Backbone:
């Protein structure tokens, strides 16, 4: 399988963000990507007070365009995430389409980013977003793929549950902050790959976003041994990597940690 990531610098112009994403999808599909992944909030990053106005239903304008693109290019397309409007609630939601443009997965971010970063910067995602509660996988040409979003990365119990569902690849669309990303992004991604003996692909936002936020970028693909096999440079760019699931099975045979779990103690 070939996987393509589009590291974006999303701004508060939804129309331009969508067109940039569609252009990158075309590029990655032309390079042979079977599965293309966009970052968290690919459609809009801007002031909190604007977020409820930018939320969309699913199906809705942005997601419908991506569905058409998946069908046109005959690829699996993970739509990163958008602000989803559902009645009176807003979720941080991911959608995945298969090669026929059929929706095969829908995930709402479980863990919301409510933190105070050193330096006095406060993020409170729960002021706008309602958390999800479902653990989600989908089949991608015979490979079980698990879904998560950004801050979920810090909660290994979610990834262990995904491993229990037979996951061989985990996707992490993200908008990881610069302050946390420079120290925590790569170690956390590699840990999730090592402890679950699977591939992990993390597709991030990069650079400055209004009003005064900055994301770390460094989108990457990590193999089941924990080695980074592809990584984005700084800037808005694409990454393409090949995934070898025979290699993964070999690692699992030689290092059968998943079989050694004490389910009698930990479940």
Residues:
């Amino acid at each position: 399988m070939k996987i393509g990531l589009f590291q974006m610098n999303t701004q508060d112009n939804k129309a331009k963000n969508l067109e940039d994403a569609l252009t990158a999808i075309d590029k990655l599909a032309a390079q042979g990507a079977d599965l293309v992944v966009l970052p968290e909030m690919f459609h809009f990053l801007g002031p909190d007070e604007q977020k409820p106005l930018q939320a969309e239903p699913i199906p809705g304008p942005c997601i419908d365009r991506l569905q058409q693109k998946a069908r046109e290019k005959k690829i699996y397309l993970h739509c990163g995430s958008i602000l989803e409007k559902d009645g009176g609630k807003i979720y941080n939601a991911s959608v995945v389409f298969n090669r026929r443009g059929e929706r095969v997965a829908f995930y709402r971010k479980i863990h919301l980013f409510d933190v105070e970063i050193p330096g006095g910067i406060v993020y409170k995602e729960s002021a706008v977003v309602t958390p999800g509660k479902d653990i989600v996988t989908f089949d991608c040409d015979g490979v079980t793929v698990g879904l998560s979003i950004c801050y979920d990365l810090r909660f290994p119990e979610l990834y262990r549950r995904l491993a229990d569902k037979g996951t061989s690849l985990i996707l992490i669309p993200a908008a990881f902050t610069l302050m946390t990303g420079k120290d925590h992004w790569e170690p956390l991604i590699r840990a999730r790959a090592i402890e679950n003996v699977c591939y992990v692909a993390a597709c991030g936002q990069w650079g400055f976003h209004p009003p005064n936020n900055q994301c770390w970028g460094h989108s990457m693909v990590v193999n089941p041994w924990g080695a980074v096999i592809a990584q984005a440079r700084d800037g808005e760019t694409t990454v393409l990597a090949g995934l070898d699931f025979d290699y993964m099975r070999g690692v699992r045979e030689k290092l059968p940690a998943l079989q050694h779990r004490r389910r009698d103690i930990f479940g």
Remarks:
- The helical segments are 14-30, 51-54, 61-73, 156-164, 178-196, 245-254, 263-266.
- The domain at 2-259 is CATH 3.60.110.10 (Nitrilase/N-carbamoyl-D-aminoacid amidohydrolase).
- The radius of gyration is 17 Å.
- The mean pLDDT is 97.
